[in-house]
Amino acid sequence: MNDSTPPEDGKPTSFTKAKEWCKKHESQLLAAGGIAVGLVVGLLVVRHLGENSDAGTYAVEESTASEPVSAAEPADEQRPSPSPHLRKLRPGQNASEEKKAQYKERTGEDLEPGVTWVDPPKQEPGGEAAA
User: Using N-to-C axis directions, what is the helix angle for 13-24 and 26-52, rounded to 10°?
Assistant: First the structure.
């Protein structure tokens, strides 16, 4: 098997066989390469989404987490909130001056950009909200 005399073109026989095999199976090799590239891109997208999924959670001194804004819920519709907390806003939105002042009064800190303060009204006996 191991010839000490090289072929006429100077390349080993196994290299020539490998080169011919690659030419013969070129389309399959290209398809496999395309699949591999697709898998790598898919994994990178999944990784990116996983890293950014917790970006909107903020903690307040009372250790309450923000409630994400639901795309199915209309933005102007009020929903009951059990306790005061921060809520992440959609990109480009900021809290109103009133909410910034409420947060400053409650915590003594400035409200971060991109979040708002949710401070539910106090409940009166009988389940009615204070006006």
Answer: 70
* Cross-strand pairs, 65: 59
The number of helix segments (H) and strand segments (E) in the chain equals: 3, 2
SS3 (DSSP) at 85: strand
Q: What is the pTM of this model?
A: 0.34
Write out pLDDT tens, residues 59-70.
444 444 445 555
Which pLDDT tens digit goes with each residue over 21-47?
888 988 888 888 889 888 898 888 888
Neighbouring CB atoms inside 10 A of 8's CB total: 6
Q: By CB neighbour count within 10 A (0-12 exposed, 13-18 middle, 19+ buried), where does 64 fall? A: middle
